[in-house]
């Protein structure tokens, strides 16, 4: 916890152990007494939500790291290509050959840049899709769990939903 000056303070002894991120919520949920509502099932659903977000974040981070690594490789390759092109252009026999070679190099460079951009975009799309699929799956599962819990509550209270 932080005080008004954003300095660390001692931990509130009423709060649960920091090793269990669910401890405080478990205590709060268990104290709530809602007739027919299964607090253990609610807590399990909460855990699954946190696990899904954690997993989606991990997948997104791995994708971003792969993207940054590939960008570094592209820059390294580009710098090497600049060196090679400089050597090639300096060996041109006349202005006409130099101009033709420059045009060819410009086209190759543009094509390579377009291919690299597509590759990076595909990498990002794949990473984002994988991350979002984790969240979407959990949302669908969570809605089904909620519907099941509400049906059980309705059955226990005599309401049919």
Briefly say what this structure is.
This protein has 161 residues and is an all-alpha fold. It has 3 helices and no strands.
What would your notes on this structure say?
The chain is mainly α and 161 residues long. Helix content is 77%, strand content 0%. It is built from three helices and no strands. α1 (23-31) runs antiparallel to α2 and α2 (39-90) runs antiparallel to α3 (95-157). The two termini are 43 Å apart.
List keywords for this structure.
mainly alpha, 161 residues, 3 helices
Radius of gyration of CA atoms, rounded to a whole number: 29 Å
How many angstroms separate the termini?
Answer: 43 Å
| Strand/helix succession | HHH
Relative helix content: over 70%
Q: Main sheet, how many strands, which sense, barrel?
A: none
Low-confidence stretches: none
Strand content: under 5%
Mean pLDDT: 83
**Overall geometry:** rod-shaped
- Number of helices in the DSSP assignment: 3
């Amino acid at each position: 916890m932080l005080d008004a000056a954003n300095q660390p303070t001692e931990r509130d002894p009423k709060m649960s152990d920091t090793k269990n991120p669910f401890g405080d919520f478990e205590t709060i949920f268990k104290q709530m007494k809602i007739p027919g509502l299964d607090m253990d099932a609610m807590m399990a659903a909460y855990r699954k939500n946190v696990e899904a977000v954690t997993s989606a974040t991990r997948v997104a981070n791995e994708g971003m790291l792969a993207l940054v690594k590939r960008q570094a490789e592209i820059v390294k390759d580009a710098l090497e290509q600049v060196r090679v092109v400089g050597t090639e252009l300096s060996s041109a026999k006349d202005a006409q050959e130099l101009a033709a070679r420059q045009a060819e190099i410009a086209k190759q460079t543009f094509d390579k840049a377009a291919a690299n951009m597509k590759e990076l975009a595909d990498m990002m799309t794949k990473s984002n899709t994988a991350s979002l699929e984790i969240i979407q799956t959990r949302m669908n599962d969570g809605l089904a769990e909620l519907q099941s819990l509400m049906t059980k509550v309705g059955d226990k209270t005599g309401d049919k939903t």
